[in-house]
Specification:
This protein has 13 helices and 43 strands.
């Protein structure tokens, strides 16, 4: 039933959860809620007011009762010139200003397709502008997608300074009061080569308790500014009601500046997020009469369970775009990348010689990384002209791809196509096609950036990138991107809007490549893991999990990402060095079962025992593909605080969607108290058989658990179960 004055509460069943809209009669403000179907009866009626005793001049009296809750809005917007809300908010939040106060419910439209897909448009109207909150869901989806559309309905320009993609309101509905001591915020920090550190904090520790009178805006606004969306934080936020055992979460699908807010003024907590606003991201945009602006999409979920349950729901939405990937991707082909072999000095002879070692293995794709192009000054990374280094590839790259194709391999090529470096002719001669800031070329270290809003820049990349891939027969493209443009660029009314336009133009070029080369496999690499968010992952077959190529923390980082991207898109490297012991090689190879297996290192000099070990890992990996491709993950950890010097143990349990197989990846790190037995519960029940393993760590299968024997430090193992 649609929301209306006659029906101020509208519930929409979506699988095992409910989307609820509530219309406040006094303010005509609409709030938005997600509830697990099993928990509907556990919601409680909130208190209306808070009685606050106050001591005054030695006599006991009471301050007048203060409001306990106030209906928030399912949309947050801030227009220039409308002032700001009182309560010490400016500089901390732009939420709940006069624009939101003026925004009232107009109507709700519900569209259902023959296949059961649902779209709910909730229309709100303000003076001279209108907003549509759009929810989409399809049968089988474990989460929803929400976007916001703002339209100028007046006859004068309006300038937007903040627009939310989503708002989750009235958290928690399972407590009558302000739920002291039971609300936890979950986030994931990220830095270069150290991606996905989970952070769990009580709201009290974030200083987000309501004030006694509910007067001040309490906001934890966080995010990132620039074109590396996973830098500092992943675009993710979750709130846990530990008393009710319920999680709410959101993930933004956006590759530019973004923000999330955990907001509180009264008993209830509200989550919101979207484009980084004027205060946080130097962004504003002017809309002429009749013009509109669409926010980035947000993925939203609710789970009665734990954090892994919530993250599985959010990440599952990232599988939908992968149906358009090349058919070979369905089988998760194994790769070899020569970067940690030649270290920036590839050659035809070296690549072909390495391919000879790979013949007969399960590797299907060989990637040529940085160093294939001319370096005019013989310096590291002088890219931008993209002229083949004929000293290393005397007959051109086409000869190399032909040789690899004859040996049974597809070939990939590295580009950092969005930038150019000093030493290239492009750097100094094509500044009109490059991004500028404050009227001068935007330079960040040894990089300038192509302005992909400019048709000339697109034509240049067509000539240098698209034509190279097409003419030389490449099937795979590794796209690197190794710095951020910061707050933004010229060419729009604000730096942040210039950045937004550049991000959209960049993503359009990714689509252009796939339209021209439908079978092209694209790897999303941005200094390892700086673009691992849903909108970029939707355009690519897989992403580099990190630049931690050879370090001990690889299993930790790779497991972190199970909560943020699909394992089938999580490319994990095992660098196989001839000097490594078999135990160290096993540790590295086992980590690749946490995602997409990518080998590197000087394979041609490996001993026969080491290569046999690598081939055994590849053969087991092929059996594990169904679970890695379509399944759900659970992380079991007893880790110390350091990633760089990991201690303790970790097991990742990946259960196939069809319930027929389980992959368990187990690692030990430094164990200060000595090796211990580890018990791995199998939530999928009993009846399993241990039919494959990699590594020497002993294991015993008993009913609904796997008992792992004590193992030395730095041990890796994989167990494959079937029933």
């Amino acid at each position: 039933m649609k929301l209306s004055s006659a029906h101020p509460v509208a519930d929409f069943a979506m699988g095992d959860f409910v989307a609820r809209y509530r219309l406040d009669a006094a303010t005509r403000r609409v709030t938005f809620h997600l509830l697990p179907s099993t928990c509907l009866d556990a919601t409680v009626e909130a208190r209306a007011s808070v009685d606050t005793p106050v001591a005054h001049t030695g006599q006991s009296r009471k301050w007048p009762a203060v409001m306990a809750r106030k209906a928030d809005s399912l949309v947050q917007v801030k227009l220039r010139g409308d002032g700001a809300g009182h309560g010490f908010g400016l500089g901390r939040t732009l939420r709940n200003g006069p624009s939101v106060e003026a925004l009232i419910f107009d109507r709700q439209e519900v569209v259902r397709s023959d296949g059961g897909e649902m779209r709910i448009d909730t229309h709100l109207a303000g003076p001279g502008f209108a907003v549509t909150h759009r929810l989409t869901w399809a049968p089988g989806d474990l989460a929803i997608v929400v976007t916001t559309v703002l339209r100028n309905t007046g006859d004068k320009p309006v300038t937007v300074e903040m627009l939310s993609s989503f708002c989750l309101n009235d958290l928690t509905p399972f407590a009558r009061d302000d739920a002291p001591g039971r609300l936890h915020a979950h986030r994931f920090r990220s830095t270069w080569s150290s991606e996905g550190r989970h952070e769990n904090q009580l709201l009290e520790d974030l200083h987000l308790e309501r004030s006694w009178a509910g007067h001040s805006h309490q906001s934890e606004r966080f995010g990132q500014v620039g074109t590396m969306p996973v830098r500092g934080w992943f675009p993710f936020v979750a709130l846990e009601d530990r008393g009710a055992g319920v999680f709410w979460g959101a993930q933004l699908a956006w590759a530019g500046s973004w923000q999330m807010e955990i907001y509180r003024r009264h008993d209830d907590v509200n989550l919101s997020g979207g484009l980084a606003d004027r205060e946080f991201g130097h962004w504003w945009k002017t809309l002429g009469p009749g013009e509109s602006l669409d926010s980035p999409a947000a993925h939203l979920a609710v789970a009665a369970g734990d954090l892994d349950d919530l993250c599985h729901r959010l990440v599952s939405l990232q599988a939908k775009p992968l149906a358009a990937q090349p058919a070979i991707e369905h089988d998760l082909p194994i790769l070899f990348n020569e970067w940690c072999s030649s270290w920036g000095n590839p050659s035809h002879d070296y690549v072909v010689e390495t391919a000879r070692r790979l013949v007969g293995s399960e590797v299907r794709i060989i990637v040529i990384d940085d160093g294939w192009a001319e370096r005019p000054g013989n310096q590291f990374q002088q890219n931008g002209d993209w002229i083949v280094n004929r000293r290393a590839f005397p007959d051109g790259l086409g000869a190399t791809t032909a040789a690899l194709r004859e040996a049974g391999f597809l070939t990939g090529l590295w580009f950092e196509m969005e930038v150019c470096n000093p030493g290239s002719r492009a750097y100094g001669e094509r500044t009109a096609l490059q991004l500028a800031a404050d009227g001068v070329p935007l330079a960040v270290g040894p990089r300038r950036f192509w302005d992909l809003r400019h048709p000339g820049a697109v034509a240049y990349l067509d000539e240098k990138v698209l034509a190279r891939l097409r003419d030389d027969g490449f099937a795979y493209l590794k796209v690197d991107y190794n710095d951020t443009i910061g707050v933004g660029c010229d060419g729009a009314e604000s730096p942040g809007e210039g950045l937004r336009q550049q991000v959209l133009a960049t993503q359009a070029y990714f689509r252009r490549l796939r339209e021209a080369l439908p079978d092209l496999i694209i790897e999303n690499c941005s200094s390892g893991g700086h673009r691992l968010e849903p909108s970029m992952m939707a355009l690519c077959a897989m992403g580099s999990f990190s630049d931690a190529h050879e370090t001990l923390e690889i299993p930790v980082l790779a497991a972190n990402l199970h909560r943020l991207i699909l394992p089938r898109q999580n490319q994990v490297w095992a660098v196989l060095n001839p000097g490594d012991s078999l135990q160290r090689l096993t540790y590295s190879l086992a980590a690749t079962f946490l995602g997409r297996m990518c080998l590197s290192g000087d394979l041609k000099d490996l001993s026969s025992d080491a290569w046999d070990l690598a081939c055994a890992a590849q053969r087991l990996y092929r059996r594990c593909v169904p679970a890695l491709r379509d399944g759900r993950s659970r992380l079991l950890r007893d880790l110390g605080p350091s990633f760089r010097y990991p201690t303790g143990s970790q097991e990742v349990v990946r259960t196939a969607a069809d319930g027929k197989s389980i992959v368990i990846v187990a690692h030990t790190f430094a164990q200060p108290d000595g090796p211990t037995t580890r018990t791995v519960p199998l939530r999928a029940g009993a009846g399993w058989r241990l039919t494959g393993r990699f590594g020497t760590r002993a294991a015993t299968l008993a009913d609904d658990r796997l008992e792992l024997a004590p193992a030395p430090d730095l041990t890796g193992a994989v167990y494959f179960l079937e029933r």
